[in-house]
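Figure 2 data, in text form.
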Amino acid sequence: MRAYLATSWPDRGTTTCSCPGIVATTPLWFYPGSPTDPRDVPITGDCLFPGGVGKTWEPGGFEELLSDVTSRVFGVYGDDTIVYPGHGDDTTVGAERPHLSEWRERGW
């Protein structure tokens, strides 16, 4: 599905923003739903994976990334939203949301 999303979707108002991660401007792409599938699709690149946020290198980077992901993904999308990371398994907002405080406490 990722290849289809990245190469075959006409632009229907796709938005991007950046979050700190492996690089300072790791992109997040947001594809709006369509008439046949109204679910919005966040492609989180290296910002969010099953089990936590991506790797950061700079002091304070983890806190900044977790804050950005919390507001830009968890603050916008419902629990049934499928999240497509840059690599590895897909997940849903609802599968990851209960772990936000755990991630903050462990610091990664």
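Caption note: The beta strands are 15-19, 26-31, 41-45, 48-49, 52-53, 82-85, 91-92.
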